[in-house]
Design goal:
Layout: H1 7-14, E1 22-26, E2 29-32, E3 35-38, E4 42-47, E5 50-66, E6 73-86, E7 93-96, H2 97-104, E8 111-116, E9 121-130, E10 133-138
Antiparallel strand pairs: 1-5, 2-3, 4-5, 4-9, 5-6, 6-8, 7-10, 9-10
C-alpha cells in the first residue's frame, strides 16, 4: 500500500493533517460506468498491479480538491481486497465459511488499495447468504 502514489497524500488527509489545504468530502455512492457503487458493496476488483481479480469491499469514497485556484478535484475509491478469494470466470461463485473466516474476516489477510475513480476496474457483486457459505453473483 505504501508504494501507491496516492498513499502519502491520502494518509495525511485521512489522519486529519498536512501542510497543504484540501477540501475533503466523503461520498456514500458514485456511478461508475452507469453502475452505482456504494460504500459497503462487494466488487470483483482488478487493475494495474492486480491482474488477478479477487473479492473486494468498497470501504470509502473520498473527494479531494486542493484549495489552490484552478485545481481539479479528484475522486478516490478506497477498497479492501481479499486476495485469498480469487475470482475465476465471470459467473457466480461460492465462498465457504472456513475461507470467509481465514481470508475475509481475518484483517491480516486484507490489502487496502487507493484507486483513482478513472482507474477503478471492477464488476459489482451481489451477496447472498446460504447455510455455511456466501454466494456472490455478478450484476
Amino acid at each position: 500500500m505504501e508504494d501507491d502514489p496516492a498513499y502519502p497524500v491520502l494518509k495525511v488527509l485521512l489522519e486529519g493533517g498536512g501542510s497543504e489545504l484540501f477540501w475533503f468530502e466523503e461520498v456514500i455512492s458514485v456511478k461508475v460506468h452507469h453502475v452505482a457503487v456504494a460504500v459497503g458493496c462487494f466488487v470483483s476488483h482488478w487493475g494495474e498491479g492486480y491482474e488477478q481479480p479477487c473479492l473486494s469491499l468498497v470501504t470509502r469514497i473520498v473527494k479531494l480538491q486542493s484549495e489552490e485556484e484552478g485545481c481539479d478535484e479528484s475522486l478516490w475509491i478506497i477498497i479492501t481486497r481479499f486476495p485469498g478469494v480469487p475470482i475465476i470466470g465471470a459467473g457466480q461463485f461460492r465462498v465457504s465459511g472456513d475461507v470467509w473466516k481465514s481470508c475475509v474476516a481475518d484483517e491480516r489477510a486484507h490489502v487496502i488499495v487507493f484507486t483513482q475513480f478513472e482507474d477503478f476496474k471492477f464488476s459489482l457483486l451481489h451477496q447472498f447468504t446460504v447455510k455455511g457459505a456466501y454466494i456472490f453473483i455478478p450484476l
